[in-house]
Design goal:
The chain is an alpha+beta fold and 101 residues long. Helices cover 27% and strands 37% of the residues. The longest helix has 11 residues.
């Protein structure tokens, strides 16, 4: 629980050509390498949503990666929102068809 106080949370909305280009699986792998917890999913709008929690430096590295994405992606914009860390995620996952998170 003490680590939660040192962690931050970020919510990203990534737009552009980001669906059907392995963006979610690539972002998930990058987040795991950085030691972050959270999830990534496609939105019906054609965007990708990513929520991650962890140390600020790791979040900054993930945000920088998300602005480029995997080779086939064409990222137009990344909307970044910082929030309070909740510690609710134990790992990082790709979510499919989950309307809540």
């Amino acid at each position: 629980m003490g680590n939660t106080l040192l962690n931050r949370r970020v919510q990203l909305r990534i737009s552009g050509k980001v669906q059907g280009v392995y963006y979610r699986s690539s972002a998930s792998e990058e987040a795991r390498v950085l030691g972050l917890c959270g999830f990534v999913r496609n939105l019906p709008t054609g965007e990708v949503e990513l929520i991650a929690e962890g140390p600020s430096a790791a979040l900054d590295a993930l945000i920088a990666w998300c602005k480029v994405g995997p080779p086939a992606a064409e990222v137009a914009a990344v909307d970044v929102r910082y929030e309070s860390s909740t510690g609710e995620y134990l790992d990082f996952r790709v979510r499919r068809g989950d309307p809540l998170h």
